[in-house]
Amino acid sequence: xxxxxxxxxxxxxxxxxxxxxxxxxxxxxxxxxxxxxxxxxxxxxxxxxxxxxxxxxxxxxxxxxxxxxxxxxxxxxxxxxxxxxxxxxxxxxxxxxxxxxxxxxxxxxxxxxx
Length: 114
Description:
The chain contains no helices and eight strands.
């Protein structure tokens, strides 16, 4: 399935919030924004969708375990343990785990405070 066809809805995904930092007191002009770190687990056959972008929510991802397939720009790219990728304003993608073991990533991004 390509990103042009769209991704299935999210299934088999667990997201654990690990830490946040209020950026307002830390960096001038960042009021209302926070640095967020999450651990995302995608079960075998799981999907982190649908297709989504990262405008206003830049971040980075680092894979701890398993293999995550990142679908963007019509290309499916596999990332295994010890590899990561950026998610900037031009990122439009969805993720899946086509493997047989849970895929675990650490995601760090800047988001609006909830």
